Automatic annotation (TrEMBL):
The gene is Hppr. One of its GO terms (cellular component) is cytosol. Residues 22-113 form the D-isomer specific 2-hydroxyacid dehydrogenase catalytic domain. It comes from the Eukaryota. InterPro entries: D-isomer_2-hydroxyacid_DH (IPR050223), D-isomer_2_OHA_DH_cat_dom (IPR006139). This is HPPR reductase. GO terms for molecular function: glyoxylate reductase (NADPH) activity; hydroxypyruvate reductase [NAD(P)H] activity; NAD binding. The keyword Oxidoreductase applies. Keywords: Oxidoreductase.
Length: 159
C-alpha cells in the first residue's frame, strides 16, 4: 500500500438485494477503498494483493478457504452483525486473520422487541387483536361477536 492510499476492503456489492447499504458504503469510503466482489473476480491477481480486509454484510460474501487462499495480505474480517456463527473461526484463524463484529449494533431494537413481546404477553394483545378484527368468532368454543374495526382507536388494544 502506497503512502496516503486507503486500505482496500472487499465487499459483495453496493446496494441491490444483498449489497452494502449505500449510506453505509458512503461511510466506509471515507476510510477505505471499497472493492466489490465483481471487481475482485475480474482482476484477481492485482486486487488480491491490495485487499487487507473483508466486510461481511448480511453474511455475504461467503468466507471460505478458496477466498482466504486468494487474499495473501488479508488481516481482518469485519462482520456487520452481532453473531459470527456463519464464519468458520478455526479456519479463518489458521490463516492468521482476525474476526471482529458489532456486538452493540442491534441492542436498542432487541430491547424494544423484548419489551413489546412482554407487554403483548402480559396484556394478551394477540388474543385481543384477533377478537377485535376477526368479526364473529369462537373463543374456547363459545361464539363471540367482536367489535367493528371502526370502533377501535389507533391506540394499542388492551392498554
Amino acid at each position: 500500500m502506497a503512502e496516503g492510499e486507503l486500505p482496500a476492503v472487499l465487499i459483495l456489492d453496493i446496494g441491490g438485494t444483498h449489497g452494502v447499504l449505500e449510506d453505509l458504503a458512503a461511510l466506509l469510503k471515507k476510510h477505505f477503498h471499497l472493492i466489490t466482489m465483481k471487481e475482485f473476480l475480474g482482476n484477481k491477481e492485482e486486487m488480491s494483493k491490495k485487499i487487507q480486509s473483508v466486510f461481511v454484510f448480511e453474511c455475504r460474501p461467503t468466507i471460505d478457504r478458496e477466498l482466504l487462499e486468494s487474499l495473501p495480505n488479508l488481516k481482518v474480517i469485519g462482520n456487520s452483525g452481532v453473531g459470527v456463527d456463519h464464519l468458520d473461526l478455526k479456519m479463518i484463524s489458521s490463516f492468521g486473520v482476525k474476526v471482529t463484529n458489532t456486538p452493540h449494533a442491534v441492542a436498542d431494537p432487541t430491547a424494544d422487541i423484548g419489551m413489546a413481546l412482554m407487554l403483548a404477553s402480559a396484556r394478551r394483545l394477540v388474543e385481543g387483536n384477533a377478537l377485535n378484527f376477526l368479526g364473529p368468532c369462537y373463543l374456547f368454543g363459545i361464539l363471540h361477536y367482536c367489535s367493528d374495526r371502526d370502533d377501535v382507536s389507533e391506540s394499542i388494544f388492551g392498554m
